[in-house]
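Entry 14. Ran structure prediction on the chain below.
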Amino acid sequence: MNMAHPGRWFFTLFLCGFFLQAQPAGYPPPTHLVTIPTAGVLVRGSFSMEMRIQRNGGFSLGLNTGITDRFQFGVSYGASHFIGDTVVGWYPRPEAAVKYRLIDETTAFPGIAIGIETQGLGAYHGESNRQRYDVKSWGLYLVGSKNWKTPLGNLGLHAGSNYSFTERADGDADPNLFFGWDMEINPELSLLLEYNAALNENTVTAREISLTRNGYLNGAVRWTFVDHLHVEMDFNNLLFDQDRITSFNREMKLTYIEYF
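Output, structure tokens:
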């Protein structure tokens, strides 16, 4: 398979899914994979706390709550160099996240959600010609998710498009594309893989998407350590540019979900 054409690769995986038991999974899909949003939402009366431990001693902390079975709302904040001996780079403001599921998933059709998320990843750069995070926030997005039951557990495919309306000072305000995959190995362990085309971070267009030239390919192992607590090891930017950095980015994410 030619990995230089991620659209064909994703489409092939999507078709293969129809040979599985095509029915909605027994539980809603995750609200995010490694970084990309999905069509999954928190149910009414639930909330999640998420801490992302990032490179260079950075962190971000987010709190989301299910207002209804279709609508969730959250806030987040963080800093770069929080751990270490350099000046802490606090984010300029708390960021917000809202999501509404427009269409429920059925046996034949994916679930579809629309949302706004202004929290980017990594350090914030406040220069007048940048004013953005290392990885831009999703901004306004539309995403679809489809799940199947397999002999091992749930298999989910997710794809969407976004427009980062808060981070445009760098002169690149193009719409973006993203897609991903999550697979349960057993009730405790899941594998995640996603691709953020990053069309709003360079001059590449959707017609020119290539895994070897741009975008972020991210993977993760998610472990449900105890009930309601997910421990995740993330491996971001796996196809890094060796002329600019020497290795992919390793991070950790802790997510706790509770009901009230």
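The helical segments are 6-17. Will compare against last week's run tomorrow.
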